[in-house]
DNA sequence: TAATAATTAGTACATTTGTTCTAAATACAG
DNA sequence: CTGTATTTAGAACAAATGTACTAATTATTA
């Protein structure tokens, strides 16, 4: 395998399992059996590794979102499917979410990028809400401010369910994803019309 | 002022403003104008400073909870008041929430303590939910699993609203608290009975 | 094949960090 | 006032870290 790709793969493994602050470029090189010099030939600065991994995550997530947007009409099932895929992706790059503030301090470019991203996503969520209301899945009797609060909730839950898992359950892999996708389902439930709630209970 | 207390005060300031990983015991000593030797006379290990600050937070929060539990019957206003006080307290010790996973890795005792705490809190929340249902404030037509999901939501939101603020809005002090207490209100809204919703809209 | 470019190993260096140690200064008790 | 305990400063050390540098090896290209 390409050394550069291998560095990214090994770094992801180590960051995920031991945290972004305990793992240094030397650890990554040692685990791969290459010299520190070699590693720094491919990534002059260690932070570039983190930045690259973040970019991979962002790119993968963009694919998920554009897939979602291509489906019309949006059903509750497509939404649930999207949620599960998002959780899986987040789990793959979990060190980013587990150390999000740390990383955004260390690599300011990530912070800027993330900020721009949330601005875009916010609009996309509102568009999806609008569709789901039209289709009789989401309630239409809630004040607008409630939907705004929901978007922030989605962001916080989406970014930090992994941290919650780390601090409490420590569920691994598919167990974690299963548990938290149920939390996400539950989170939307009170926003559904009675008809949609009934369909969900089946 | 007591040197020990002063160390804690200065450490809190620096951790809050610059993060727990960038600030070292030397930074704290320098800011206070004392020697590193002196600082380590009072706290043999730097982590003890973090642990002590966490204990202060936990103790302060315990006071809030026991105050809440002493009030009968629980109204929507007491709940909102409790939420605002909680947010204020979290803001005071914000570095802990901004670096929760980091810290729990660095100081395993904190992790254990937090885990035990959430177990307790979970029960307390269910008890409060039961009361609020009895009083006609919370809906009684939602399945039990939805309330379980809500508790996890409350934990995640409560622990990570500060991280969300750090990554996006960067609101300061009372502005942050105001904004996120509205998010919290919005979060509970769909769980309220129509009567309670109407009263809230006033 | 010869020359050039890319990759790699290994070493080296300045900085930082947590912590310890010693001695001085200060506070306090009898 | 004298002796003891507490507090403080400052130096010292070992370990770790990011990164740069040099020389060797390997791959590529003409």
Account of the 3D structure:
Two copies of one chain form a homodimer. Chain A has 202 residues and is an all-alpha fold. Chain A folds into two domains: 1-44, Arc Repressor Mutant, subunit A (Orthogonal Bundle); 46-201, Tetracycline Repressor, domain 2 (Orthogonal Bundle), CATH 1.10.357.10. Helices cover 79% and strands 0% of the residues of chain A. Chain A is built from eleven helices and no strands. Chain A has helices spanning 3-18, 25-32, 36-42, 46-70, 76-92, 94-98, 100-106, 108-134, 144-167, 173-188, 194-201. The N and C termini of chain A lie far apart (47 Å).
How are the SSEs ordered, and which strands pair?
The structure is a homodimer of 202-residue chains.
Chain A: H1 3-18, H2 25-32, H3 36-42, H4 46-70, H5 76-92, H6 94-98, H7 100-106, H8 108-134, H9 144-167, H10 173-188, H11 194-201
Chain A binds a DNA duplex (30 and 30 nucleotides) through helix 3.
Keywords (chains A, B): DNA-binding
Organism (chains A, B): Chitinophaga ginsengisegetis
Domain HTH tetR-type (chains A, B): 1-61
Gyration radius of chain A, to the nearest Å?
19 Å
Number of continuous helical runs of chain A = 11
CATH architecture of the largest domain in chain A: Orthogonal Bundle
Order of helices and strands of chain A: HHHHHHHHHHH
**What is the mean pLDDT of chain A?**
94
The structural class of chain A is mainly alpha
CATH fold-level topology of the largest domain in chain A: Tetracycline Repressor, domain 2
Quantity of strands of chain A, as a count: 0
> What is the count of distinct domains of chain A?
2
Largest interface: A-B, 43 and 44 residues
> CATH first level of the largest domain in chain A: which class?
Mainly Alpha
The percentage helix of chain A is over 70%
Assembly classification: homodimer
Low-confidence parts of chain A: none
The rough form of chain A would be described as elongated
CATH homologous superfamily of the largest domain in chain A, by name?
Tetracycline Repressor, domain 2
How large a portion of the residues of chain A is in β-strands, by DSSP E? under 5%
Beginning-to-end CA distance, first to last residue of chain A: 47 Å
Outline the biggest β-sheet of chain A: none
């Amino acid at each position: 395998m390409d050394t550069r790709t291998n560095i990214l793969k090994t770094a992801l493994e180590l960051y995920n399992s031991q945290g972004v602050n305990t793992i240094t470029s030397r650890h990554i090189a040692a685990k791969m059996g290459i010299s520190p010099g070699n590693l720094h030939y491919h990534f002059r600065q260690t932070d570039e590794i983190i930045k690259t991994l973040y970019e991979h995550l962002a790119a993968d997530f963009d694919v998920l979102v554009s897939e979602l947007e291509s489906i019309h009409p949006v059903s509750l099932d497509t939404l649930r499917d999207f949620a599960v895929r998002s959780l899986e992706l987040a789990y793959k790059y979990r060190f980013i979410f587990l150390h999000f503030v740390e990383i955004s301090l260390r690599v300011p470019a990530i912070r800027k990028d993330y900020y721009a991203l949330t601005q875009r996503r916010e609009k996309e969520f509102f568009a999806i809400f609008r569709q789901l209301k039209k289709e009789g899945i989401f309630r239409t009797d809630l004040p607008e401010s409630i939907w705004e609060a929901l978007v922030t909730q989605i962001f916080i839950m989406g970014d930090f369910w992994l941290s919650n898992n780390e601090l409490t359950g420590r569920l691994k892999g598919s167990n974690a994803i299963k548990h938290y996708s149920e939390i996400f389902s539950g989170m939307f439930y009170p926003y559904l019309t009675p008809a949609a709630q009934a369909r969900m209970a089946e």
